[in-house]
Design a protein that fits this description.
The structure is a homodimer of 283-residue chains. Chain A is mainly beta and 283 residues long. Chain A has four helices and 16 strands. Chain A has helices at 15-20, 46-60, 202-208, 215-218, and strands spanning 23-26, 29-34, 39-40, 43-44, 65-73, 80-91, 96-105, 111-122, 131-133, 166-170, 187-194, 227-234, 243-248, 251-253, 256-264, 270-279. In chain A, strands 1, 2, 5, 6, 7, 8, 10, 11, 12, 13, 14, 15 and 16 form a 13-stranded antiparallel β-sheet that branches. Chain A has a two-stranded antiparallel sheet with strand order 3-4. Chain A is globular, with a radius of gyration of 18 Å. Chain A starts with 14 loop residues before the first helix and ends with a strand. The model of chain A has no long low-confidence stretch (mean pLDDT 93). The interface between A and B is large, with 51 and 51 residues. Strand 9 (131-133) of chain A pairs antiparallel with strand 14 (251-253) of chain B.
């Protein structure tokens, strides 16, 4: 008897969709149970949290697609119950602006804010088709020549819950750090998708920009690199299939660094750009 | 009788400092009169407004230097009275996070929000001296070989109030658009300072990142390019003297573009990085 062929999960009916869905308790107040499944070394992944906040804002604002979304990470989120408070700052014809906070409760039942987000939303399908992009897609070998957690020297996400949910294949040129030979260039490149085959949408792009190992590893730094602030611009609705993510750091100074990510879809379209400011905590 | 030699204005005692100073009316509530002097074609400059909001947050938070500041521009500010509401989101040891809104009043006396800001502040002087920056300062000819409003073909700011307050000298390689010959590269480079000789500080860097003509001009687009969202990272306290600002656009698509700015000080240090998402409104 042959194994049943599993069909890829559909957008709207996948683990990612279920785990990022918020339930509206009252206008501007949403409940969510942060899933253990998106943790790495006990910490809930920042991109997953961004998708949760992004969906709560999409439910709140008259427009459904994040165009520009900025998050300040205030304290570490834990798996379990959380609430998202949302506010409409401005509802315009083409764009709407909103604000959101992710909150959890400490042992004494006090609210602790985890993340605050400020974002402008629009309708990606309403944009004209003009493209005059001088940026070029990153040169990444085909996925079969890239490194995933299985049978690779890369410990990224190994045996971590999130690893089961991601399809992450690192460019061999940016995995030297795992063998003690970082390139020193501050680059990280990978193919990225959901493990269950769900295609990308604007919310999974929020996950894509913060799912690779830190570029600091490629600079020979092995400590924790917590994100202070992350801004994503979603520029187009992604075509089906995995995306390519290229991240670079140009300025490591004073204990902080920026990480710039570009996300390219299967049609060679630059679908998202992000920049984060992160702190380098030496191990 | 010879003309009196005017000494350069000092940080803290210059037109920029006076025009961005907010007065605290109550905790979290600040008054300001937005100066006519920082307008261009009737609109108050976005970078000047950022400096106003940035100073109100510095007065509110336990830390005084903007590390990462994001602004969403909601409606056009007009010269005249405005209020800035500020809120401390989180006060930490190394970093504090705050939020601010700039508000004005319409004819019926209703509050209209102009800009909302989310920012994290720290202490630039407390940072270690390590610098491992792979970015290179832009190659700009000396100021004497660059173009200012006086006697140049560039109409930027000509006879506009803000032009009297800025020292802006554009790289000849990025002024072709003013002669009908845009390079098509989406670049803009300039020397930038205050006209009264005031040296830079973190707040004038907020002005620096949004003071050059739009890169869209260098792409052959002449319409208005309003900023939707702008994020600035201030990475070091700038040394005395004018800074060099280099702005590039890599992705013009769907009627939107990003503008990435780097600001370099006289000691060849990358003191600020910014990215904005702007909309292209065809003229």
């Amino acid at each position: 008897m042959s194994e049943a062929v599993t069909a890829p999960a559909a957008v709207g009916d996948s683990e990612f969709d279920r785990d990022t869905a918020v339930t509206e308790r009252a206008p501007g107040l949403h409940d969510i149970d942060l899933s253990e499944g998106w943790t790495i070394f006990g910490a809930v992944n920042g991109g997953y949290l961004l998708a949760v906040l992004g969906r709560a804002l999409a439910d709140t604002l008259p427009h459904g697609d994040p165009f520009s979304l900025t998050a300040h990470y205030l304290s570490a989120s834990r798996p379990g119950p959380a609430v998202v408070r949302t506010e409409t700052v401005r509802a315009g014809r083409t764009l709407s602006t909103g604000q959101a906070s992710l909150l959890q409760y400490d042992e004494e039942g006090r609210e602790v804010e985890r993340i605050r987000v400020l974002a402008s939303y629009g309708d990606l399908d309403a944009l004209p088709d003009d493209v005059r992009t001088s940026a070029k897609p990153p040169a990444i070998p085909p996925p079969g020549q890239c490194f995933g957690p299985e049978g690779s020297p890369v410990p990224q996400g190994d045996q971590q819950p999130i690893a089961d949910r991601l399809m992450l294949k690192l460019d061999p040129a940016t995995v030297g750090w795992a063998l003690g030979q970082p390139s020193g260039k501050g680059e990280m490149r990978a193919w990225f998708g959901l493990a269950d085959g769900r295609d990308h949408d604007p919310f999974s792009l929020l996950l894509a920009v913060d799912a690779l190992p830190p570029t600091a590893f490629d600079l020979g730094i092995s400590g924790w690199v917590p994100t202070i602030e992350l801004t994503v611009h979603v520029r187009a609705r992604p075509a089906p299939g995995p995306v390519r993510v290229a991240i670079t750091t140009r300025n490591l100074a004073g204990g902080f660094l920026e990480e710039d990510a570009e996300v390219w879809d299967s049609q060679d379209r630059l679908v998202a750009q992000s920049r984060q400011l992160a702190r380098v905590l030496r191990g």
